[in-house]
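On to my pick:
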Amino acid sequence: MADQQLSVPPRASSGIRHINHDHRRGYVKIGNHLAQHRELSMTAIGLATHIQSLPTGSKVTIKALAERFPEGEVRIAAALRELETHGYLARLKERLPSGHVVTCTVSYNNPPARSTETHRERREPASTPRPDPDSDPDPEPAPAPAPEEVPEAEVPEAEIQARELLARLRLRDPRLVLSERDTVRLAPAAARWLERGLVPAAVTAALTRALPSATIHSPAALLAHRLREQLPPRIPDAWAAHPAVPDRVVHPLRSCEDCDRAFRSPVPGRCTSCAAAAPAA
């Protein structure tokens, strides 16, 4: 009697086995370049799949995705950066007609194909169509008008004088060295002093009076503070028309014509002693 032959079941595979059914609706196509990406994390791959399945206009902000998935905002933000790095996502700033700036997110389902097209466009320039020999050549475009020269804004005379004043402060104190940029920046503040009737010597004296004995680390900041805080008041026009009369008049010193002694007098002549002794003589 012949031995009975038993059928041996096929050896089970240790790998994955697929049981696939066609999707009739509600599906999205994902390329193996994404599903099997060697550099993207599982979070990034899953997030890209979710974003590609959303309809246009859906919110994909970090806050909205964190409310949808158990991953926190930190992991979602890191996954979004991964997708941006590898070309699956782009976040662009756009200005609305109202003036508000919003962030527009663009999802790319096939970055390898996009990069190939871009490379081909760079290597193959667009072909120039040959003109029809029977047609008249297009007239050459008129030369563009030359741009009008815009004159530079004129600097007021007081500001020019203020720049020179500030630049010369280092001659009064070597610690007050200003750069050209600081000189131009502080000139309008110093010009206000000159416009209020002060002579340059008075402005220089006010800026350099009672300077600190220590090292001046920022002369520009020190001078900006003094120009702002010590700005003298504006003198009304009525005051300028009627200047204040001094309490007493101080006459200049004169040399006596007889004894050569110094005395004060509005005009040259003799001192009081010599003037009194002259009639007696």
DSSP finds twelve helices and four strands in the chain. The longest strand covers residues 89-95. The longest helix spans residues 180-195. The domain at 32-120 is CATH 1.10.10.10 (Arc Repressor Mutant, subunit A).
